[in-house]
Amino acid sequence: MHEGHRERLREKLVSHRESLTDIQALEMLLFNSISRKDTNPLAHDLLDSFCDMAGVFSASPRLLCTVAGVGPRTAEYIYMMGLLLMKINASRSTARRRLYNFAEVSEYVRSRFEGAADEKLEIYLTDKDGMLLCLKSVSAARKDSVSIDSQTLNYILSELKPYGMIVAHNHPSGVAEPSGSDDSALLEMAQVCRMQGVRLCDSVIFARGELFSYYHSGRLAQLLSEKR
Q: Per residue in 116-144, pLDDT tens?
């Protein structure tokens, strides 16, 4: 019965996580430290003992162990989750990286690619204000070629639903000029962006300290118009 119950909760987490009660969320969290036992009664006891979720996750391991059914391993796990929550809240007060204009993009790209020996590709997903939401980095399987497949990109965009996307990659042994394969790869990514309603803002190539911008050179608009 418990395994079926756990599966139902997992399905609820994926499909309607906002509908999980505090008891259910804490119960699910305890799955990771208590593999087989029903964790619902313990979730109730923890919330009863410490009044609310904030109390549970701020309690010390010694205090947590005063609740019947909480051993050192479970107490350590809950305490660690409390530490992570504290760090998450603290990070919200720290300004995120903004990639709103070419000066900000170029500075960031240089910091990411300076000194890289092998070719790599990075995708920066932003909100409408240019704030970085997520970074996806892909290393080259071979030293002279790097790409991201359309299926993976489609999945990332559909899950995150960003406003814009910036592509950056390097030519470690060459110049900051796009090749035919760069154009083709960018067109594939542009198609995925169009399907997902995401704005392809730019593609930047870094090589030996120099930068090439598809957007500022007009090459991005040219490629997209030719594709139509």
A: 888 899 999 999 999 999 999 987 645 44
